[in-house]
Amino acid sequence: MKKTLAILFGISVFAGAGYAAFAYTPIGKIALSKVLIKKWEQSATQVNKKLDKKFLEKELKKLTYSDHELLLRYTLLNPLGKRRAGKFNKKVEQRFKKLWGKMTKEKIYQRADLSQLDNIVLPG
C-alpha cells in the first residue's frame, strides 16, 4: 500500500511539474500556436482561402497561454465548420456561446488582429 501511494504521489508531482513547465514557459505557447495555425490552415483550405502564416504567428505571440487554450477549445469545437456541414445543434450552440463569451471577456480580439480568420474559423 505504501509503495502504491509513493508511486502515485511521484506520478502526480511529475505530471504537475510538467504542466507547470508547459503552461508557464514559452514552450506551451509555441506548441499551441503551431497546433492552432495548422488547424486554421486546414479550415481555410476547406473554404478556398489563404492565410498569412507569419502574420498569425506574430499576432499569437501577443496573447497569453490561457488565451491560446481558449482559442484551441474554440477551434476544436469548429462551430462554423459544423454549421456548413449541417451538424450545428443546441449542444454545439451552447458551447459556442460560452466560449465566445469568454473570448470577448478576455478581449482577445483587441489584443491580437485575428481578422484573417473571419468567416473561416471565427464569425465575421
Number of helices: 7
User: What is the number of beta strands?
Assistant: 0
Shape label = globular
What's the helix-strand series? HHHHHHH
Please give the radius of gyration in angstroms.
18 Å
Could you explain how this protein is built, in words?
The protein is mainly α. Helices cover about 75% and strands about 0% of the residues. The chain has helices spanning about 1-25, 25-45, 55-60, 65-75, 80-85, 90-105, 110. The model has no long low-confidence stretch (mean pLDDT about 90).
Summarize the structure.
By secondary structure, this protein is an all-alpha fold. It contains 7 helices and no strands.
List keywords for this structure.
124 residues; mainly alpha; 7 helices; 0% strand; globular
Task: Give the SSE layout.
Elements lengths: L1 H22 L2 H21 L6 H8 L4 H13 L1 H7 L4 H16 L2 H4 L13
